[in-house]
Amino acid sequence: MSLEYSEAEIIAGCQKGDRTMQEVLYRRHYSEYLKLCLRYASCEPDAKQIMNDAFFKIFSRIDQYNFDGPLGAWIRRIVVNTCLDHVKQKMRRERKERAMDNDQLHLATSDRGSFIIDNLSFNEIIKHIQELPEKHRAVFNMSVFEGMSHKEIADELEMSHGTSQWYLSKAKEMLRMKLSPVKLKTL
Fold first, then answer.
1. Distance (Å, rounded) from C-alpha 134 to C-alpha 147?
2. pLDDT digits (tens, 9 = 90+) for 38-71
3. What is the CA angle 150-114-125, rounded to 5?
4. How many CA atoms within 13 Å lie on the side-chain side of 150?
5. CA-based nearest residue to 90, from 57, 145, 43
6. Tell me: the pLDDT tens digits for 165-177?
7. Taking the model in full, what pTM does it have?
8. What are phi and psi of 159, to 5 degrees?
9. CA-CA distance, 184 to 130, in Å (whole number)?
10. 47 and 38 in contact (C-beta within 8 Å)?
11. Cβ of 72: how many Cβ atoms within 10 Å?
12. How far is C-alpha 159 from the geometric centre of its chain's CA atoms?
């Protein structure tokens, strides 16, 4: 039998380091934010690790929450930033492992169109997004799901505006190819 706690009680408990309240907060938001992490991660174990890292930050910084906006929005921002930190860390590792040949990048103009995928479950969509290469997946998520501009994406991922556009265009192209039997609508 679990007790229902108000958001204020949960926050106050978390600010005092109460493990029970931390667990209540974690369980209350787990499924929603795991879905967000799954969009950025290449596999479920990575998504769970990102989620745990995000909640570590949430519990470490809960005293900074000032009730100016909804708690969920504050948590979401931390989770998204943790996802982006994970992506940037992987990108830095990849850069160290191999030098990127800029001549191979043919910058393309983004089609700026977004698409709606009919007849697919959340898990099927996530599976296809997870199969995208790391940088493509990050830019796609930031643009399509987070609504960030290419300038914001470029600044966040330390790349040029044109490179951000190229990754989005290629990600959409890859998804279209994977989903070609599925009906895609272009907006």
1. 18
2. 999 989 999 999 999 999 999 999 999 988 888 9
3. 105
4. 16
5. 43
6. 999 999 998 988 8
7. 0.59
8. -140, 170
9. 19
10. yes
11. 13
12. 18
Nearest to 35 by CA among 27, 43, 47: 47
Task: Supply 116's token pair.
Answer: 């709606």
Tell me the C-alpha distance between 35 and 122, whole Å.
9
Which residue type occupies 38? L
Residue for token pair 């009919």: 118
User: Within 10 A of 76 (CB to CB), how many other CB atoms are there?
Assistant: 17
CB 65 within 8 A of CB 11: yes
- Alpha carbon distance 117, 12 (integer Å): 42
Q: Write down how long the chain is.
A: 187
183 sits in the region (left: phi over 0; alpha: psi -120 to 50; else beta) called: beta
Place of tokens 């974690």: 26
Residue appearing with tokens 């191999």: 98
Per-residue CA distances from 58 to 26, 74, 96, 121 (Å): 10, 9, 30, 30
